[in-house]
Amino acid sequence: MRHYLRIVSLLALSSFCLGVAEFLVSGILPKLSSFYGVSVSEAGNLATLYALGVVIGAPIVSVLISRFNYRNQLIFTLGVFALSNALMFFSHSFMSALIARFIGGLMHGLFFVIATLVCLKAAPKSKTSMAMSLMASGLTVALVTGVPLGILVAKHFGLLAPFLLVAFLAAVAALLALFVLPKFSSKPANFKNLGVAFNFPPLYKGFLVTAFSCGSMFVVYIYMRVLLEKHGFSVESITNIYLYYGVAAMLGNLFGGKLTDLRGSFAALRFLLSMQVFALVAMSFSYHLPKPVVAFNAMAFGFFGFACIAPLKMLSGHLARTFTPDTPNSTIALNEASFNVGITFASLMGGLVARYISIDMNGICAALFALSAFSFLSFGLKKAYFHQK
Q1: Predicted structure pTM score
Q2: Which helix or strand (DSSP H or E) is residue 86 part of?
Q3: How high is the pLDDT of residue 389?
């Protein structure tokens, strides 16, 4: 399609909105705790409910709206997401804020199902992986610029003002979708379709590859600030390392798309996951080394971790078309849910390692996640990937 870049740009703007909404809470969590009169750990449920919504929204809500064409699905998703953030802005009770965050999470998971399918339909075959990377680039831009911008807006215009800004941008994206996105047809789905994928071992092995690959990043990322503070890094140094990490993640995301277009998702993932194992192991042994080494390690695992996004999505699409050609949407939806299942499991394991062993060992734990993904890919999916190719 000649104008697929306009479609991908719209999807990137949308993923930026979702990324800001997802990551922002961690940046203003103590202030949200004071605002709602709850403990910091209770305020953390604003992030937990959002993640739970993502896991539920991807497979379940996608079935409920599957009878509509993808343009209408996207407009609905962005519209409800805008309303959920507007509700967050007007929420002065903690319960209404939790509800708003859960609804936002539902739409977050649903969006990435729709966006993945739209990329597969809109982009030329030789450019599909790069289209996936550009679509997901909104998340990495949000990681680098969106969250600091949100914190700045909260400082000058009120604690909840960033959510109103996100609501406005999401509404603009929904309006643009009306004019930019063609009426790509969608196959109606049902809840039985969600179980079809589990009849094929290669598909649930693919879900595990996604979950472990995504989880490997977050075992370290969630606790990285605590680690850096433990080893005497200043606030300025920590801020710089997070900035370098975000820039590396953006570049890695684009690199992953290009590599997948050139080599295919299987070969790309084998290389990226093997490099991720080395980068994460190094994180457990570099904290006593000069600061530039630590910054480089953080950039390395950010680069290779986010480079995995495009090939993971392409692998899911290939397996879905190969094994569930009549219900590919449901299979892709389950794979999208796997991303956040991995994040949830990773945060749990990272916390257990930090509490009962040592927080310095989180890099080793994360490397085991990446190694598990590599193993499922190499020994469980090679034959399935080249099936009918």
Answers
A1: 0.79
A2: helix 70-90
A3: 47
